[in-house]
Specification:
single chain, 429 residues, Membrane-bound Lytic Murein Transglycosylase D, Chain A, TIM Barrel, 3 domains, eight-stranded parallel β-barrel, 19 strands, 21% strand
Length: 429
């Protein structure tokens, strides 16, 4: 697998000749069907072609793996060998590109219920590459009950794809994360027990694998109360062989103040729960100044701190599947940026004849254009280069895996890269 950055004069036909792959494979892997023409600066994934080797006397799959720098398992998988397979001199062995050499990881995808038709399309692209699938979300009410969620289609598709379904619970209300509701629950043993009982009921009813708790804007002085609630939840769910995970705000040291960060105790979560999802995105956000959504230099700072207090195999790094289109000049408290899918961002660049640039510090693509409103715009999003950089960071630190926010917009490059670089664990047999 290679990444090619489009230059003037490039075409899918010419690239297929250059790299020796089919034109259709380039179109399919990069989702080019909706694009009128290639965009200068656009990152294209060139699918893997591999090579062949004629086995000589004395050679084995192990010696081939060392010679070509690939794993024995990847050779076995590509050639569809069985455990009892005998190989002989003169046999032609297909050697994969240096794929699946970045480790074994888990992956999670949050998905917000929409319509059965849209959910089916979204999960057709992504479900086979996910360890966990998490419908988002059941909201916690003041009395410890959980709101309903129409996730029947998601659950059925998840089970068909052997996804470990996770119950996602939040303290969201109609407009934001509700501080009053969650603080009151954390101060009451009775409400906590009611909530834990309702979590167990929901898990049993739909066959969930466990729960992801995403409580935000907790008053910082209730930090230890939150830790104690997690201990109770883990005790209750582990008795039924269910897992507990939490979502954590990104931070680079033990911040103990502030509504978003103060109550999230990295060290305690690392000791208490089965794994954490660090929400390493939203540096660039719809109401803020234009910048990369998940700049790699900033993400690295967060992971540096996280691994110092949380076991690496308990950390899932958040990855955004979206970008934003800002109208310039940016005015604080002014017009919010438009959320945009990563594939959609490239299609828009083609439609406005933009040139895509790549910021090396943040490892993120962006472009400028003038819209129909005659105002200048800037779009920051994710592409194959930025996703690969994030995957390499996960491998470098030996993390548990990645968690996507959120499934909904097509981004075929991401799924091809994920499958090419990693072996994805499936917990459901």
């Amino acid at each position: 697998m290679k990444i090619h950055v489009v230059r003037p004069g490039d075409s899918t036909w010419a690239l297929s000749r250059t790299y020796g792959v089919s034109q259709n494979s380039i179109i399919e892997v990069n989702g080019l069907e909706a694009q009128s023409h290639l965009v200068i600066g656009q990152a294209l994934v060139i699918p893997s072609t591999g090579t062949t080797h004629v086995l000589r006397a004395g050679e084995s799959l192990w010696t081939l793996s060392k010679r070509y720098g690939v794993s024995v398992d990847s050779i076995i998988e590509l050639n569809k060998f069985t455990n009892e397979q005998v190989i002989n001199p003169g046999q032609v062995i297909r050697i994969p590109d240096r794929s699946k050499n970045y480790g074994v990881i888990e992956s999670n995808g949050f998905i917000q219920p929409s319509t059965p038709e849209k959910e089916t399309v979204v999960l057709k692209e992504s479900a086979e590459y996910l360890t966990y699938l998490s419908p988002f979300s059941h909201h916690v009410n003041a009395d410890g009950s959980l709101t309903e969620l129409e996730d029947e289609t998601i659950v059925n598709i998840g089970k068909a794809n052997k996804n470990a379904l996770m119950l996602s619970i939040t303290n969201l209300n109609e407009s934001n994360f509700d501080t009053v509701v969650i603080d009151n629950i954390l101060k009451s043993n009775q409400l906590q027990q009611t909530l834990i009982n309702n979590i167990l009921i929901a898990i049993r009813e739909k066959g969930y694998y466990g729960v992801i708790i995403d409580f935000e804007r907790i008053t910082p002085i209730n930090r230890e109360l939150y830790n104690n609630f997690l201990r109770k939840t883990v005790d209750a769910l582990h008795k039924e062989n269910k897992v507990v995970a939490t979502a954590l705000a990104p931070k680079t040291f033990d911040i103990q103040s502030g509504s978003w960060h103060g109550a999230h105790d990295y060290r305690a979560h690392g000791e208490i729960v089965d794994f954490v999802i660090i929400m390493t995105y939203e540096w660039g956000w719809s109401g803020g100044p234009p910048m990369a959504v998940a700049p790699l230099n900033e993400v690295r700072k967060v992971i540096n701190y996280a691994v110092s207090v949380i076991p690496r195999k308990k950390i899932m790094m958040g990855i955004p599947l979206y970008g934003y289109d800002w109208t310039l000049p940016y005015i604080p408290k002014g017009e919010f940026a438009e959320g945009i899918g990563c594939l959609e961002a490239v299609v828009r660049a083609a439609n406005v004849n933009a040139i895509i640039k790549y910021d090396m510090q943040s490892q993120s693509p962006f472009y400028n254009y003038f819209g129909k409103d005659r105002a200048q715009h800037v779009v920051w999003f994710e592409d194959a280069r930025s996703i690969m950089a994030k995957f390499k960071l996960v491998s470098e630190y030996g993390l548990r895996g990645v968690s996507y926010w959120s499934l909904g917009q097509p981004f075929p490059q991401n799924w091809y890269l994920l499958d090419d670089m990693f072996r994805i664990t499936k917990l459901v047999k």
